[in-house]
């Protein structure tokens, strides 16, 4: 048996009339005549097979069936309107500005972009790969819609802590910098200060009374990996984006985990920005 299909225009008339407490006002708002509205209500009751409105003095009130229909009709109309809004936004050339640490960019950016463009092919993505301090400054100045950054204790109004990852001492497999005379300072490959990983490394070594020196600084993670691979020293980073030719070095002081936070520019991001945030969260939670 074929099930009847509700006419969304009829349901909209019904919901609007109930919300305005007047079907005459509903006719004006919807641009219809009162006779057309009456015909729609009659059609609705015939389709359901029972009255949805009953007389109450000079007005009308909902029957038990009418109350149930009102709840379902609202959900149907909300879903209908949401679908059309999403489809419209998918074809609108808007822009979402995303800021990432270089570690995260290498780790999952291509997968996120592929999944994002499937849903929002007309939305432009501006991706900024930068260090933590620069990302947070851009967020403060309204230069980004979303920023994935290390948790340094900075608090923004619309931030979500997504998790944490372990920091490790990393060196070359072929030329481990730890294998050197005991009196020599440990050579470190680091970002320039300020850097949360640099600070954590120095603090751990100082507490363990291990002497160290900054052997090389680089403005990029790629530069750090290259210097470590060449055996110029060790670095402190996470496993995120760790190249296969580098190795975790044992025997150095343990360090704590490092959290990561997704900062949003507003409490209610656009649907496209919300999807991007969801994809980032899912990617970080993937094994």
List keywords for this structure.
seven-stranded mixed sheet; 287 residues; D-Maltodextrin-Binding Protein, domain 2; 44% helix; Arc Repressor Mutant, subunit A; WH_DNA-bd_sf; rod-shaped; transcription regulation
Q: What this model shows, in words?
A:
Pfam families: HTH_1 (PF00126), LysR_substrate (PF03466). The chain is α/β, with parallel strands linked by helices. The protein folds into 3 domains: 8-90, Arc Repressor Mutant, subunit A, CATH 1.10.10.10; 96-163 and 260-285, Periplasmic binding protein-like II (D-Maltodextrin-Binding Protein, domain 2, 3-Layer(aba) Sandwich); 164-255, Periplasmic binding protein-like II (D-Maltodextrin-Binding Protein, domain 2, 3-Layer(aba) Sandwich), CATH 3.40.190. Helices cover 44% and strands 23% of the residues. The chain contains 9 helices and 11 strands. It has helices at residues 8-20, 23-30, 34-48, 64-90, 102-119, 132-140, 196-207, 221-229, 271-285; strands at residues 53-56, 59-62, 95-100, 124-129, 146-150, 159-172, 186-190, 212-217, 235-238, 246-248, 257-264. The strands form 3 sheets. Strands 3, 4, 5, 6, 9, 10 and 11 form a 7-stranded mixed β-sheet that branches. The chain has a two-stranded antiparallel sheet with strand order 1-2. A two-stranded parallel sheet has the order 7-8. Helix 5 links the parallel strand 3 (95-100) and strand 4 (124-129). Helix 1 (8-20) packs across helix 3, helix 2 crosses helix 3 (34-48) and helix 5 crosses helix 9 (271-285). It is rod-shaped, with a radius of gyration of 30 Å.
